[in-house]
Amino acid sequence: MRYHRIIDSIKIISKNYSTRSEQHYAKQIRDATVVCTNHLTPEIKLHLITEQCKLWHSPANECQFNDPFWAFYWPGGQAISRFILDNSKYVNNKTILDIGSGSAACSLASALAGANQVTANDIDPVACVAAKLNAQLNNINIDVLSKNILFNDCSQWEVIIVGDMFYSQDMADVLWKWLDTLCNQGRTILIGDPGRHCFKPKRHLQERLKKLKEYKLTENCCLENRGFSTASVWISFNLGADSYLIFLHCKIQLLLVFHQKIYHLGLQQL
């Protein structure tokens, strides 16, 4: 009986993963993770590394993966996924691109919320296999793309999801520039972040970000992400070129009025 279960498992892996390396990654992921629902979106099952896993307690040099970031459900991704599931209007009947998708939880949430088409994008080949495994686990169809598409034409997608991507200053600098361009092109951008130091909206995009929701993280997520207890979802909104110039003009006028008031108060105190 056990032999037949192993053979069936091999058949499933071979059917869903086209290359031998993908089949190998799929087996490694299954062996190293557990199916987990202990997070902000329990309706989505994910292959994750938790305290139940041997790898959790092993030193880094014993890890068979270069960087198993895809095996953790990061705070920003949890917040976006929860928000999408509770507010489907942001993705319903739309085309979605999930950048740096990792486990693809945000992609799965988008599909569950009624998106027309969802693409999970990650340049890590193991993450792409993990995304396929998680989609299969939840009986959800998504597209998985391993190509680096930063600064590519993304006109085929209406909503861009960016979860937990502001992990370094170099990456943040690249992302802000790209996201600003996408925003100018009319794309809607959903960002999830727990308040990392590098999450500092700059220049034009700063004026077009609005915090939609802040979530308290689960206890296990707080332990995995020391120093963070909440995560927030932000949305960008596009202003036409003329409207944006008017917006900036109004803001400058308000700042001038404010500074004039401060100046006059200072004179009165002399």
From TrEMBL:
Keyword Transferase among UniProt keywords: yes
Parts of the chain that traverse the membrane: none
Keyword Methyltransferase part of the UniProt annotation: yes
Protein name as annotated: ETFB lysine methyltransferase
BP terms from Gene Ontology: methylation
Molecular functions (GO terms): protein-lysine N-methyltransferase activity
UniProt keyword terms in alphabetical order: Methyltransferase, Transferase
Matches recorded under InterPro entries: Ribosomal_L11_MeTrfase_PrmA, SAM-dependent_MTases_sf
GO cellular component assignments: mitochondrial matrix
Family statement drawn from the similarity comment of this UniProt entry: Belongs to the methyltransferase superfamily. ETFBKMT family.
Top-level lineage group: Eukaryota
